[in-house]
Design goal:
Shape: rod-shaped
Number of helices: 6
Order of helices and strands: HHHEEHHHEEEEE
Distance between the termini: 149 Å
Number of strands: 7
Low-confidence stretches: 14-20, 55-108
Length: about 240
């Protein structure tokens, strides 16, 4: 006996039956998960930042200045500080870290009559310099008297600049105020004048040479006041270089 059953209806694909849902409810679980993760991350960051914000400020730097005597007491093996041994009581409180002043170049001795008597002659080394080669060659062609005058004049300009660096002599006339002469084997130019910058100055010097009269062995000079411009022409002092 054959059992009959109701025919089965096959729905087309476009008619697949889906459960009914409220519109927009698909995105709610995903949004909730994102919000939850953000809250967890914020809580973790807050735990890390709070201790950093509460760190105490570092203490201010402090320095201590001690005297040279105290410094030597802390370092007995170090040599005695000159401030501790030779300074006056008022200077003993200077800090040991004060740098020593550079050694000053010894100034030529000045006699009571304002005459400068340098202990080191400068013309020999200056003439040996390559920059003075032409001058050295010219002096070799001069007669003895003229060569001696040129040598002593050159020594004078070198000594004046070494004595006062503000002076940079570029010309010297050893007969400006009076003629030079020999005095007991010494070349004396008591009426000289030298030009430095835009001015002429009075000069008096004594130049001692060795037996060959080619090397200066002693020198003394005195710089006088500036010469008024109105007198330059009469003294044969050129105004321009």
């Amino acid at each position: 006996m054959t059992t009959l059953s109701a025919p089965e209806r096959v729905l087309p694909a476009r008619e697949t039956v889906r459960p009914l849902r409220a519109r927009g409810t698909d995105s709610l679980p995903l949004l909730g998960a994102v919000v939850l993760h953000l809250m967890v991350i914020g809580a973790l960051l807050l735990r890390v930042v709070e201790p950093l914000m509460e760190l105490p400020e570092p203490p201010a730097l402090e320095t201590e200045v001690i005297s040279a005597r105290d410094f030597d007491a802390l370092h007995p093996s170090a040599p005695a500080s000159p401030l501790a041994t030779s300074a006056a009581p008022a200077e003993a409180s200077l800090p040991a870290t004060v740098p020593a002043a550079p050694a000053a170049r010894p100034a030529p001795a000045v006699a009571p009559d304002d005459t400068v008597r340098p202990t080191r002659m400068l013309s020999g080394d200056a003439l040996a310099s390559p920059k003075n080669r032409r001058l050295r060659q010219q002096m070799a062609t001069l007669a003895d008297e003229e060569r001696i005058a040129q040598l002593c004049d050159f020594e004078a300009m070198e000594q004046i600049h070494a004595w006062q660096h503000r002076f940079q002599p570029d010309r010297l006339v050893d007969y400006a105020l009076s003629d030079p002469h020999w005095e007991n084997g010494v070349f004396v130019a008591a009426g000289s004048a030298f030009r430095a910058g835009a001015d002429w100055f009075e000069l008096s010097y004594r130049c001692t040479l060795d037996a060959t009269r080619r090397t200066v062995t002693g020198f003394a000079f005195r710089v006088g006041p500036s010469i008024p411009r109105t007198e330059w022409t009469a003294l044969n002092l050129p105004a321009v270089h």
